[in-house]
Amino acid sequence: MSASRRPIRLALADRGIDGVTLLVLPAALFVVLLFIHPFLYGLLLSFTPKEGGWLGNYTRFFSDPYMYGTIWLTLRIALPVTLLNIALSVPVAMQVRHMKHQRLLTTILVLPITLGTVLVAEGLLNYLGPQGWLNRTLMLVGLIDRPIRLVHNYWGVFISLMITGFPFTFLLTLSMISGIDPALEQAAATLGARARHRFRHIVLPLVLPGLAVTFCLAFVDAFSVFPSAMMLGAPAGETRVISFAAAQAAFEQYDYSYASAIAMIMAAVQFGFVGLVLMARGLFYTGPADGGKG
Amino acid sequence: MAIASAGFRELRLDGMSRNFGTLNALKDISLTLRRGEFIALLGPSGCGKSTALNCLAGLLSLSGGAIWLDEKRIDTLKPEERGFGMVFQNYALFPHMNVRRNVGFGLQMSGVSRPEIERRVDEALNVVRLASQGHKLPGQLSGGQQQRVAIARAIAVEPPLVLMDEPLSNLDAKLRLEMRAEIRRIHRLLGSATIYVTHDQDEALSLADRIVVLRDGEVRQVGTPQELYRRPLHADVAEFMGFRNALPGRLVRREGEEAEVDCGFAGLIRGQAVDVAGERVLVAIRASDLVPLPDGPINAEVTGLEYRGEAYYGTASEPAGAELFFRTEMPLAVGAPVRLGAPAERTLVYAAGGVG
Amino acid sequence: MESALERLWRTLVWAFVIFLVINVIAMIAAVVVNSFGTRWLSSWLPAAFTTRWYVSAWKEFQLSDVLLVTFQIAGSVVVISALIGVPAAYALARRDFPGKPLVMVLFLLPLLVPPITFGVPLATVLYKVGLAGTMWGVIVANLVPTVPFTVILMIPFIEQIDPKVEAAARVFGAGTGRLFLHVLVPLLVPGILAATLLAMVRTVSMFELTFLTAGPSSQTLVVALFYSVFAAGVRAGQSIDAMAVIYMLSTLIWLVVALRFVNPTQIVARVKKAPA
Questions:
Q1: CA C261/CA C269 separation, integer angstroms
Q2: What is the per-residue pLDDT across C50-89, written as a single tens digit (0 to 9) for each?
Q3: Do residue C77 and residue C32 come from a single domain?
Q4: Are C229 and C153 a contacting pair, CB within 8 Å?
């Protein structure tokens, strides 16, 4: 072959490797060193428990209902919130994409994401509290006659995950739906498809794969809920989420091995759901959403 | 052939207009289209031709006027209630459906039974000669094949009217000629009335029964391809139809249609007065009609020459400095003086000023 | 033209949007109002308004120290991630090399895996090497998602610069270093600014990683806020909200500036675009 007679530098350049390519190395090494390595280290550490055999941490976790119950408690919050956020995002995005002052709305919605969960939790403590504006308003319009309890329980965490999670799923869904060539729906309309059918036959099949990815991202995020579960929920009771269990093991019991095992279990549940969803996604059309050359 | 166009006698645009904010994209368009007729909307980009098509399809609402299909007013109907077929510029094929489902989509939406859908999809695919590609996704087809699918999808519903929005503009030159012939063949075969938007005068001339020239949202001229080619009614239409030479001058004599114009050359130019009011006029001549003549009225100097096989085409500058485009059988030297002239029946005289 | 059912549906959707927006704004407003209120019990608004909570919060929570630490950490994080992230983004935007998809996955993972999941093992490693509890530990931990974030955000910015501009510079004799400095950096300024500002916002509001790795002297504002809320009862609520308002300002300033360069959808959508 001619390549073997040429200097190695040129042969490498033909395959896309030259000085410029090497620029990727520092960042890549950094991620390997501080993301991949700790993950593997944590995985190994979880198999060297303080006491018991190499599976000691895992048998300890799964034999203690107070511990393995956290998986169920976390799922009970994360799954409904994520599904609800996605179910709400789609119709809202369908309306908002034609809106003139879209940017104003998206800017307001990006605020909770930017401010982060801690501030949202602090704001909601006040706003949802027994004397907060929400309860006052509901009483004023006569929907309730005494304040309903919305903080330090399941609903506090649920609402805070909606406030931070909905904007996230909505903005992703909006960018996907806006990415569909408007000519496709126009074409469907000229062929006699009413709005409902255009949504079912054109828009939905085209965004479904993207919605699956959105679900994964939003679910993984909700499943690792941490500060709001502690601040707005009942961390000893119905919102004792798995991340709290991990942090407790690390910072109250100083058992890093056990904490790592819990983190690994958390990751396993997350990857498990993501894997299931992505497998289902493979059944749909996943190509580009435009109507041809253009 | 079972696929045929549903009948109507005439489609009437009655003062159709459309504004975008303060911009009048379409001004008071009135036009009648007869059954089976092929009409081309021709004009430069931004003239309103696509707006007009979208208004017809129902994708844009009208700001004024009405559209009538025989005695039925249709401009208040949604696109899905009009039952027209449309071929989009970028084809707008549904990327997640195979060719058969794309073509059958309109039939499925109108509740046609499954065996009937299969039968009519087969027919539509036969018409566009794509019978063997039915199970592919649009992304697996070439540009020309995608175009055929888009046409098949539009005709499968047997629409009374087919709308085409610059359907050939995304194809390369060779494919464009092929598909042009294809569209003509399909129109002959099915006889469905068609409105075809294009900015390419060759496409319009070769396909249409009648051409509607639009400019700045207004109809400038409606006529057969022959009428438009031979006798554009306004100076701007003439320019758009390929009259590259536009010489300003003064009308010195006029008798009926015959006119003599002084453009400041050695002789007077004789031509046909098409649209003349007043003394100041514009003389329009095609480059292919302007040739060297020993006693030609126009004296100029050759500034460039290019060989195009059947003849040479040259540029020349006249004493006042304007550029002229002419045709010559024999090569001429750059810098040489030349006398140019054109047959009087193909020299058109328009009023100067206004549009032009 | 529109059926009654469609109109009802539209109204419902808009009602939900308005309800949501009102709640977001009211939630933020409640914090601000409370931070300026004297006493706020069972009424719509506080009895009177004052600014004294800001003075007391500033002293009680040693906010000058906390703010200084916060911006030292955030500043170091964005500078370092720009320095190693932009060159990596350049390589990924301009070269196709074997293993590139794998490298892309490597940069996407830290953005997709939630910080609390990888934060626990990361903190363990940082404790082992003695970095945890120090300011450098917090910086390193925050770099883990920020470096990939900068890379992923910068790739499209670089891709949109015509490679012919660079070719032209090379033809006129600019070497790689000078090319970067005189041609690319000026063209990339908007992109780098956007990436830097968004990385800044993320670092200032990054709770989990800082919480897991910070010691008493390396807490950022958001962690201090969390501790003060969690230990509520000790401090006046208004004082905590005064701190919360200061925290809001410290993130929103950067967001407002960043929004001049990107639109809100891009803040979340960039991450998604790459894998799809």
A1: 15
A2: 888 888 888 888 888 999 999 999 999 999 999 999 999 9
A3: no
A4: no
How confident is the model at residue B295, as a pLDDT?
87
pLDDT in tens, B18-53: 999 888 999 999 999 998 899 999 998 889 999 999
Question: What whole-number distance in Å separates Cα of residue C194 and Cα of residue C150?
Answer: 9
Provide long-range contacts, Cβ within 8 A and 24+ apart, for C200-204.
C200/C74, C200/C78, C200/C254, C201/A114, C201/C251, C201/C254, C201/C255, C201/C258, C202/C145, C202/C146, C202/C149, C203/C73, C203/C74, C203/C77, C203/C78, C203/C142, C203/C146, C204/C70, C204/C74, C204/C247, C204/C250, C204/C251, C204/C254
Would you state the structure tokens that stand for residue A2, as one six-digit string?
Answer: 């001619």
Examine the domain organization and report whether C152 and C176 are in the same domain: yes
From B90, B154, B163, residue closest to A183, measured CB to CB? B90
ipTM entry: 0.84
Inform me whether the C-beta atom of residue B172 falls under 8 Å from chain A C-beta atoms.
no
- The dotted CATH code for B10-235 is 3.40.50.300
Gap between the Cα atoms of B59 and A185, Å rounded? 10
Specify the amino acid at residue C150. Answer: T
User: CATH code for A67-281?
Assistant: 1.10.3720.10
- Mean pLDDT for B269-296 is 90
Residue A122's nearest CA partner among C208, C37, C240, C203 is C240
What average pLDDT does this structure show over A244-266?
A: 90
Q: Which of residues 23-62 of B touch A (CB under 8 A)?
A: 57-59
Asked if C85's CB is within 8 angstroms of A23's CB, the reply is no
- Using CA coordinates, name the residue in chain B closest to A194: B80
Tokens of B180: 């042009």
